[in-house]
Amino acid sequence: MNLDLTLSSLQDKGHRITKVRKEVVKIFSQSSQPLSANQVEKMLSQVNVTANKATIYRELQFLLTNRYLTEVYLHPNEVSYESSELKHHHHLVCDICGSIDNVTNCLVSKLEEDVLKKKGFQIERHMLEFYGTCSRCLKQT
Ligand SMILES: [Zn+2]
Ligand SMILES: [Zn+2]
Ligand SMILES: [Zn+2]
Prior knowledge:
The radius of gyration is 18 Å and the shape is globular. The termini are far apart. It has two domains: 3-83, Winged helix-like DNA-binding domain superfamily/Winged helix DNA-binding domain (Arc Repressor Mutant, subunit A, Orthogonal Bundle), CATH 1.10.10.10; 90-140, Ferric-uptake regulator, C-terminal dimerisarion domain (Dna Ligase, domain 1, 2-Layer Sandwich), CATH 3.30.1490. A hairpin with a 5-residue loop joins strand 4 (90-94) and strand 5 (100-103). The strands form two sheets. Strands 1-3-2 form a three-stranded antiparallel beta sheet. Strands 5-4-6 form a three-stranded mixed beta sheet, with no helix packed on it. The protein is built from six helices and six strands. It has 141 residues and is of the alpha+beta class. The chain is 44% helix and 20% strand. The structure holds zinc ion (3 copies). One zinc ion (ZN) binds next to helix 6. One zinc ion binds next to loops.
């Protein structure tokens, strides 16, 4: 997600660029990991932008509806978000330190073809995340 391109794309569509909107887009353009609303709130306060939870949720919802962000479900009770421009990938979530890495090779496409053939169901998207122990934590155990 490129900050300037995203902001000009928003303007082209007639959306206002508020301070919060600009900062939220900036945060996602610089982040290599999915972020939850809580994390976005913390990062906003680090750059001295004060926004209440409702404003942040509304902003994330706006960017989601307009397809700048996609939802990621890494934890059962928390939604995370990441740029929708990222190449399709899956996440490796470490149960010990919480680090998140990406896997960009997807082996599900063969299965999707099979499902279409056998069930006549056209799969448009899927979510698949992996949980375990990262290499750094493995070395310490
Ligand atoms: Zn991701
Ligand atoms: Zn770890
Ligand atoms: Zn996949």
